[in-house]
Amino acid sequence: MMMKYYLSLISLLLFVTSCITQPKSKVESITGEFLFYDNAAVLNTGNEIYGVIVDEKLHELHAQALNVQKDSFDMVQVFIKGVIFENPNEEGWPQVVTVKEIDSVAPSLPFSNQMIEIRTE
After folding, report:
1. Which domains are delineated in the chain?
2. What is the pLDDT of residues 77-90, one digit of tens each?
3. Angle in degrees, CA 27, 33, 39, rounded to 5
4. Tens digits of residue pLDDT in 101-118
5. What CA–CA distance (Å, rounded) separates 110 from 93?
6. Using CA atoms, how far apart are residues 40 and 92, in angstroms rounded to an integer?
């Protein structure tokens, strides 16, 4: 009787501990405007702004962006796959992205010249 109790208790503990997993990094498709300047990179998705981890893949993305940039401050539209996580450093953006795959790089869409009309009636 006691042996069955211990065996079921051990089985239950093994089951519970095997179900507890660390959150895994998920590769996501990310679209946004990208700029790399002075060894710092930023990605603006419109909803969020991320710092970008400087590594070999970032330099590859920057090399592709140079082909479509008009000047060094021109942001370019990028379609990448990457992993987003909390910034471990106090400096910079709260979240950072590591580029895993580059889908495409294109010039950013120019802002249309919109006029605001003020009416007095």
Report:
1. 27-107 (2.40.50.140)
2. 999 999 999 998 88
3. 85
4. 999 999 987 665 555 666
5. 26
6. 10
